Amino acid sequence: MSWRMPAETAPQERTWMAFPRPGNTLGDDPASAEAARTAWATTANTISEHQPVTVVVDPVARADADRLLSGAVEVLEAPLDDFWMRDIGPTFVVDDETGEVGAVDWVFNGWGANAWSTWTRDAEIAATVARAAGVRRLPSLLVNEGGAIHVDGTGRVLVTETVQLDPRRNPYADHARVEEELARTIGATDVIWLPRGLTRDYDGLGTRGHVDMVATFTEPGVVLLHAQPDPSHPDHLVMPQIRRALEQATDATIVEVPAPATLTDDGGPVDWNYVNHVVVNGAVIACGFGEAAADDRARGILADVYPGREVHTLDARAVFARGGGLHCITQQQPAGNLRQPAGNLRQPTTDLQHPAP
């Protein structure tokens, strides 16, 4: 088999998500927790207007999920530690000759064995999703997360030095080993190494450099890049480094998307950005930050780079407060010749053993 990860603009079968459950990431404040649950549910409900959505729900959160998710959203019940499906779920790939869809099951270790993270249950979610989707599971020994890669669908992939080469993720990896594994699993032929991620991503609940917070391909040869124009924000110095790395590695057209005006919150410099958006069939789900001018400007840029797609802006502040954006809580399954459809998963699933490769 020859596997390739399609671009996010390719036709999709469905979107996979996970629903917030009690724990360190959700927090103890009832109002804040409800805001997070609402943000996750609103994202799922909005995407379901364009394509099927399946949300993995921990049994302890089932009542909240049933209360907030629309009837169009399917539920798959399974134990969770956290709820960032981009990272704990599989990365879907296709075989162009047969049309078969596969699911890459990366090793997940809590974004580099962070002291605040637990991941025993999350490490099983990729296999659970692959089985529910009816696709072949493709195990990998690389510690990686879906938010740490962005592809153009033709073999180019964006990664960051501080994730795949993180000694707490892959202590024995080097550039060549990572590139060989990305070639085997997602069909990468050109790996573009960026030096790092946003400043906030190295504090608190951060991932230490996920690329989906700084850059994405909107089509082959076009990169959407976060920009921080305010000199008082530390990312004002970070983003030129990332732009230089892009310019040295590729001749792609770079389209910058300025950050909103807000610079800090209770946790320090914010990582608010519009690069972290979700592409679905016929639409783009954009992050909003309660700033009309900046949100409208970003919506216009996204409409230009994704012509023909409707742009929905959803308030993402409750998501960013927990360490990510709307892209981080979703994972797309590309269309293909599936061995069986995901079907109606509203009923609990109890067979959660890790399948054989």
Give a short synopsis of this structure:
The protein has 357 residues and is of the alpha/beta class. It has ten helices and 19 strands.
Order of helices and strands: EEHEHEHEEHHEEEHHEEEHEEEEEHEHE
The total tally of domains equals 1
CATH architecture label: 5-stranded Propeller
State the distance separating the first and last CA atoms.
Answer: 14 Å
CATH class: Alpha Beta
Tell me, rounded to a whole number, the average pLDDT: 94
> Spatial order of the strands in the main sheet?
1-5-6-7
Can you identify the CATH superfamily?
L-arginine/glycine Amidinotransferase, Chain A
- Strand proportion, as a percent range, falls in 25-35%
Broad shape: globular
Radius of gyration: 19 Å
- What is the helix tally? 10
Question: What percent of residues adopt helix (DSSP H or I)?
Answer: 25-40%
General description of the model:
It is a single chain. 25% of the residues lie in helices and 25% in strands. Helix 9 links the parallel strand 17 (283-288) and strand 18 (310-315). Residues 338-357 have low confidence and may be disordered. The radius of gyration is 19 Å and the shape is globular. The strands form 6 sheets. A 4-stranded mixed sheet has the order 1-5-6-7. The protein has a 4-stranded mixed sheet with strand order 4-3-2-19. Strands 8-9-10 form a 3-stranded mixed sheet. 50% of the residues are buried. With 357 residues, it is an alpha/beta fold. It has one domain (3-334): 5-stranded Propeller (L-arginine/glycine Amidinotransferase, Chain A), CATH 3.75.10.
